[in-house]
Amino acid sequence: MKNKQCVAMLLAGGQGSRLGVLTGKLAKPAVPYGGKYRIIDFPLSNCIHSGIDTVGILTQYKPLELNDYIGSGKPWDLDRSNGGVHILAPYQGKEGGDWYKGTANAIYQNLGFIKRYNPECVLILSGDHIYKMDYSKMIEFHKQSGADCTISVMEVPLDEASRFGIMHVASDDRITKFEEKPKEPKSNLASMGVYVFSFNMLEKYLSEDENNQNSSNDFGKDIIPAMLKAGEKLVAYRFSDYWKDVGTVDSLWEANLDLLNPKIHLNLSDPKWKIYSRTSELPPQYIGKTAKVENSLITAGCDIAGNIDYSIIFENVTVEQGATVEYSVIMPGAVIKKGATVRYSIVAQNTVVGEGATVGEEPDYNDAHEWGITVVGEGVKVKNNAVIGAKQMLRKEEDGETV
Amino acid sequence: MKNKQCVAMLLAGGQGSRLGVLTGKLAKPAVPYGGKYRIIDFPLSNCIHSGIDTVGILTQYKPLELNDYIGSGKPWDLDRSNGGVHILAPYQGKEGGDWYKGTANAIYQNLGFIKRYNPECVLILSGDHIYKMDYSKMIEFHKQSGADCTISVMEVPLDEASRFGIMHVASDDRITKFEEKPKEPKSNLASMGVYVFSFNMLEKYLSEDENNQNSSNDFGKDIIPAMLKAGEKLVAYRFSDYWKDVGTVDSLWEANLDLLNPKIHLNLSDPKWKIYSRTSELPPQYIGKTAKVENSLITAGCDIAGNIDYSIIFENVTVEQGATVEYSVIMPGAVIKKGATVRYSIVAQNTVVGEGATVGEEPDYNDAHEWGITVVGEGVKVKNNAVIGAKQMLRKEEDGETV
Amino acid sequence: MIYSKTAGIIFSNSNDKALKEFTANRSMASLPFAGRYRLIDFAISNLVNAGIQNVGVITNRNYNSLLDHLGSGLFWDLDRKSGGLSIVPPFIGGNSKTDDELDCILRAIEYIKRRNCEYVVACESGFVANLDIKKIVEAHIEKKADVTLVYREAERPDKFAGTLKLKVDKDEKVASAENALLSKTGGKLTIGVHVFTRSAFNDILSTALNSENPAISEIISEKTGKYRVYGYEHKGFVGVIDSRKSYFETGMELLDKEVRDDLFNKERPIYTKTKDDMPTRYGLYSDVSNSIIADGCIIDGTVKNSVLFRGVRVKRGAVVENCILMQGVEVRENSTLKYVTSDKNAVIGGKAPITGTNRKAFIVKKNQVLTD
Amino acid sequence: MIYSKTAGIIFSNSNDKALKEFTANRSMASLPFAGRYRLIDFAISNLVNAGIQNVGVITNRNYNSLLDHLGSGLFWDLDRKSGGLSIVPPFIGGNSKTDDELDCILRAIEYIKRRNCEYVVACESGFVANLDIKKIVEAHIEKKADVTLVYREAERPDKFAGTLKLKVDKDEKVASAENALLSKTGGKLTIGVHVFTRSAFNDILSTALNSENPAISEIISEKTGKYRVYGYEHKGFVGVIDSRKSYFETGMELLDKEVRDDLFNKERPIYTKTKDDMPTRYGLYSDVSNSIIADGCIIDGTVKNSVLFRGVRVKRGAVVENCILMQGVEVRENSTLKYVTSDKNAVIGGKAPITGTNRKAFIVKKNQVLTD
Question: Model-level pTM?
């Protein structure tokens, strides 16, 4: 193997339980987004555009569909003779094997993979964020500042800071303190979950962490605090473009609809920074005589005869005459039957919303606490004329029952 | 996914402990063979030549090098948009995950993978046999005979039969009884570890086996006996070409040297049935002025100045002037220094045999019990003038000590 | 298994002349069609969907765009170790049209010589159809035919030189095959997809090589008695692109759901080179009906009864009706286009409406800027 | 990072005429060399080893074998989504040699126009060397050169039309660059690898397009004063294949360990299309010394001071000395070959020895059967 300046390790093993039925059969990074993408398309496309051609993807939860999606890495130009994309599942050695115990342990178990490329630094990424970022600039910053670890951060409103890992920095942006979801945050610099480590430091702290029986083997909870305590140089790298964690149903819905908001700058078709994805062979979409389509994204293979407004429609979706889809995300292969109404909902793959059914409700701002996005899980068949209220989550039963 | 007539599942998860130091860092199917191949090249090449383009490889032990070796499957023409080669490692679902408990359990855990292709039948293969076989003929035989399971068998000398799984058959080759390594064999039909199952039967018996707490979840020990007991139709498919289990050091050595035996028909360069492998970029071999080479296979990148007889020399091997290699297998990157002698040995990757050292001994037929092939493990450095006797197995110590 | 015994040949330049507005710098095979395809995608996909893994594309002139489109054959799963997609470029170019034709036939013979196949499916490039080649080859084998000619029932003959008008008996055996140009009425017309047994292929092509008019169809027509020639009717949709009029009409036929369902049969998908386009973005002012729209478009105007290729932009207030707009065309604000066929990357729009007619679409050339 | 700012161009037909025995049906770039390579492998690998990911190969005549060799660029890791390896085939063939040369230059300009690069490394096809292109481009940037000409110190000029003989100052700035053919003595001779800044590349090639003698070297020679032209000496091995004599001699130089170690530098491997050959099989009667042997050979005779390509068979009792035998050559039982250079797949052998001399190797043509 030829040496690589930087190897990226993408943590894709989480169960994503806050996405509920959407991750029933799928690892979170494989969840569809934006009409034709999967979440993982973003870090992978960022890597290749940043000149990083060696990426390890750490999987352990429901990896089959994700593995197939990644395949040889061709769609992201990551099929390389030297380097390229590698799926790293837990494995057994002479003394048996371990599942990945935490984010840090997952990387620890694959230090052998990283060592083969003898990199100067390692980029740690997550599989659940939507953003476009030139990692090469961050790596350059890491080298220039002589840091042991560089953490990308962005400013968030102080009243939202308690949802994030929060950095305190000195005037030179050197990190002085890290708090995981502080109750009373004193800084508004949130970690984006993107780290650059000098490889020797990463190896040292992962090994120490592994020997610490009390550790939860997590980057945020264990590795970063240990490095700070030992006085290593950790530096914040500021990022100010679009970035969104899509770990919850609401944030996934929001991130989709952000694509329709002209004020939000997330251009997926910039020829210099395209977001690549694996696509299937489908004829172009057909917009029928009775259709009315406004302010929406619609994808190949769709057959639209109904009304679509402010929605993201994935490939192969059928919306029949008289049906209405508003403020919703309709994933591949769904069928919205005649006269049905879908609002403020995420409708997963291969579902059917029966004739005249109503799914989702618009927000009632007097009772915002009770309101929420409705999710129709993969393969669910909603009966004709059924009424499904706000914040419902419909799961397909084993026997294929309809609801 | 388009339907496939047959999906192959290749069991590559075994630890291969009988190969000792040769599988210290490697899964058995990744062990080098024949000057430029790995064992797994044989079943994979057989698959593609038999028209089977969908192969699941079940791994769990030290899979890193094997995964890299397989990659996208390109060298075997198994990089396909629909089908192709897939590495199937154990994974976690909602309720946690399990390592593969046995060969049958490994397939059971991946029934979901098979189902996507909706095949008529499933071909079960092992990753530790050297043979060329047209599986399409066996599958055709399976269909013609209306069997639920077809097991390929070959005749072995009766006095060796106790090393194999032995089939008893009626006159129509229907299997009546199966004995795993019988002490007093009454039949000489040995199972080659190649099975064709009708998919519905495979699914049924794997599911039943999974619910049986007492099962060891093994094809030979559990599934086949259960099917026989239930009166299913199991048929033997006779094979009479070259086939060798390379599960032990001696058999691996023998199988290598078989390539030099003109009486043994195993042509690796038949243009109609080439054995494909992933190769690295190396210049041609150079045979020097002082070299003497007879009855051997030598591969790209070698620099030979010594004497080679009856040996298999892998790529990038250096044999210095005055060194002698006889009846041996020298794996990639090994260096045999001036005046050293290597006989009846397997010398693994990236080893150094020091000047004047002697490794291995010729058989003493009076004491054949004590004699055996010597193995120098990966990375071992044998000191100058050291004398290493027969049947030794040298392992590299963690601190890189020489022996 | 048919797939391993059959090879495919595609003549990529056949009938280039029929549509010279769009084939000045591309072959017929690389003519864009149906929003995201090129004509050759239909021929290759038909072959691949029958399991055929050896496809030779005989190129002649203007094949840069075709090379770029086909690449290594990856998108058709034909980037294979042995076989797969082969581009068969010309030997040193000839001096005349006849030289070129001879060279194509010679290369087709050479290509097949190196394949280990019993049957050859040879395709011209002027048609659009989703053919079940597997069934056609099976019928060829069952009837022990030397040649099987795929045909359609049509009311009018197309304008291709190579089209044959067949008379067949009850068993589909061809009694006569005449140059369809000599006839003014329709009937059973070949579509340029022929199945040959290997020996008949060699025989017929070698005969063509040595005859004054080096056309395969000519030889088949002359020698119908000598070989076992059968017909095979394709009952599904066949689009024949033999003029700019038929290009426009065939494009418009796609607005019919039955035509789309037949052509984009889910069991036999049509493969093409994929690009990384976004989904199509419909703006606040978009008003689209009865149209085929490829991905990557941005539409904020009115689009009716039209076919829009990848990356077309229709600005606010623009009206596009009965148009075929190829990749990357930009329609300016408040302009009106009716019955326009535009080649790639044109910029169109202005105060005066740009209109063709049902019988004669207005043509805009590649990269043309047509504004006022 | 240099790699993203630099594109490579390879002229695959340069100096085809120099070696017409072996380039009647192939380009210079696809000439087999060193047991398993073709000349172009050295140029492409040099570019790829510097991290360059955009390589255009300008083809002209006889490029079928080259197309087959290069495929999608997979073996050089150049089968990329954007960029990677591009074959740039001729537009419609010209009528004269000058037309062809103009067409090549025009296509080189067009290729670079579409790349987003600041530097261009242009390579001719007649040389064999393992160059550190990264260092050469770095030197070019550091010196703020417009053009950097890679040269070697040589005793005699080669016979290539485009070779320049340089005079350089202490800082390697070129004072004069003259057509080396006009000089009978050696010196600092270019090897056909030039680095250009983008603007100089366009300037010089456009000037060539409009001049009577459309040769890039000619323009550089004339305009040395106008541009910042620097030399860069490659001190490692350079083989120049300008005649059948030099082909033979350069092949034999590989028997020198120092030459091999330099050319097959482990840090910068030479990539080529891989085949699935077995290891080479040495029989009971083999006697081999001082020879380069590719995989897939079967040797049961005597081989000395020779280069054997993939799949050569030397039967029992045969003697092969000072020979270069290309892929698939078969040497019959008990025959003797001395100073023979054989093209692919020949069958050689008989009672009488077949011998050339040190100065003039005996040539056997592709597929020739030379037995008695």
Answer: 0.88
